[in-house]
Each structure stands twice: as C-alpha cells, then as structure tokens.
Amino acid sequence: MSDKFEFIDVEYAAYQESDEQYVPSIVKMCIWMKVSRSGFYEWRHAPESATAKRRGILALYVKKSFDDSDDTYGYRRVHADLVAWGVPAGPELVRSLMRELGLEPCQPRPWRVSLTEGDGQEHDIPDLVKRDFTADAPGEKMVGDITCIPTWQGWLYLATVIDCYTKEVVGWATDDNYKTPLIEKAIEMAARNHSLAENAIFHSDRGSNYTSRQFAETLRKHILRQSVGRTGICYDNAMAESFFAALKNDSAIVPSIRPASTRAATL
After folding, report:
1. Which tens digits make up the pLDDT trace of 109-160?
2. Where are any strands of DSSP class E within the chain?
3. Rounded-to-integer distance, Cα 55 and Cα 64, Å
C-alpha cells in the first residue's frame, strides 16, 4: 500500500512543478489508485520508520562505494566495501538498494581478441596445474597470460605473472606487440622483485610465444617448471583470465580514451 501512496505523492509533486494547466487533486488520484484519502494523509504525516532511516543511511554508503569505483562495482564488491567500513548490511540488502538507486555497473564487452591459436602440433609440455590455482606458500606456483587494451595510439599488450598464493601480480610488462620478449620481461620482473621457489611452476595457455624455445630457456634460467593448459580452453588458465576481466572492468571500460603510455601507467 505504501508504494501506491508514494506514487501519488511523487506524481502530485511533479504535476505541481510542471506547466500542466490541469493538476488532478489528491482525492482523484486516491480514487484512481483505489486507496483511501485518509490513509494517504496518515501515511504522509507518519514519522519515518527506523527501517526507512537505516535504508536511507545505507543508500549513502552504497552510492559512495559505487561512485568511488567509477561505476564498476557490483553489489558483492560494494558489500565488501561496507564490511571494510564497519557498516552492517547483508549482500542482498545492498543489491536491493542498488536496484532502487538505479546503480548498474558497467561491464566489459563479451568480445575479445584471441591470442592463442592451435598450430596442429603437439608440444611436449605438461599441465602441472590442472585447474588447481592454490599454493602452499608464495613463489611456488604462478600463472601468466597476455591481453590487449585499445588506446588512441593502437593496441597496448599487457603480460602478467600472478602468484597463486598471494593473488598478487608479481611481474608485468607492456608493449605494442605480444611477441616472446614481452612475456620474458614479465617473468624477469617477477624473478627480480620476488623470491621464487626453486622448481616453482609457471602456468600459461598454449600460445606460440609461451611454447617457444626462447621462452623455455628463460624459465630454465630461473629454475622454473613450465606448465600449459589445452589450446583454446580458457578454464585451464582461469585465474589469469579472471584477473584480466576484473582489470578491464575496474579501469573504466572506455576504450580508446587515453594514449597507450597513459593507460600503461594506470595499469
């Protein structure tokens, strides 16, 4: 019933602020909505309930989290912000408030350039991960991949190395191509800045650069075991793929709005 009262109240206020010559009375609007006039006025003059006050306060926190994320956070990540701020609210309540406020996170386009193409040859590199993206300690198991990001100056290619234990990007590199030196730079950064266990695993897709002899030599230099998934099966490298999806979503998916150097610095 309160939804009908609220509708009448909003519509009546809108009519009064408009240039309409005919403004229906509250009485007529109550008749149209099949509610009593006395019930409407009782609702209008009733003090705000504790629940309504709390929802109003929570809505401010939800809006702040959403705005701070550049309109990219869904209800789960907004809820995580509220938890971090010490604001008690369940995820479904956050979801409901976002719907009321009309907050819809921007999402990446479902299309992406594929950088992995099967060449019809079998490479003698095992899958040592088998979709188990957990580790017992830092530096024991890592995953890597390449993605492309559109800029005003053309495609920017990003290679990453992610530690399966800390979920941290321990190595990364960017360039205007995705040849083998790009992924070597990412591995070199990981080895230079972080302590990698001897015979640690580095897992990737079966792209031609990852399965090249040149890259295999780089891994051997750092005493890393190589692991690859199956051709074209993104789930075999889901952790790296998931990171890129979140990265593109969080870094404001407005392709070609910034030059490559600026977007590389942002990443």
Report:
1. 555 555 545 444 445 789 999 999 999 999 999 999 998 888 888 888 999 9
2. 141-151, 154-163, 169-175, 200-204, 224-228
3. 14
* Alpha carbon distance 183, 162 (integer Å): 12
CA distances (Å), 200 to each of 102, 189, 196, in order? 47, 15, 7
Q: Quote the CA–CA distance of 158 and 206 in Å, as a whole number.
A: 17
- Asked whether the whole model's pTM tops 0.85, one would answer no
For the beta carbon of residue 261, count every other beta carbon within 10 angstroms: 12
Here the tokens at position 148 are: 């492309």
CATH code linked to domain 141-266 = 3.30.420.10
Mind giving me the DSSP string for 189-240?
HHHHHS-PPTTEEEEE---TTTTSHHHHHHHHHTTEEEEE--TT-GGGGHHH
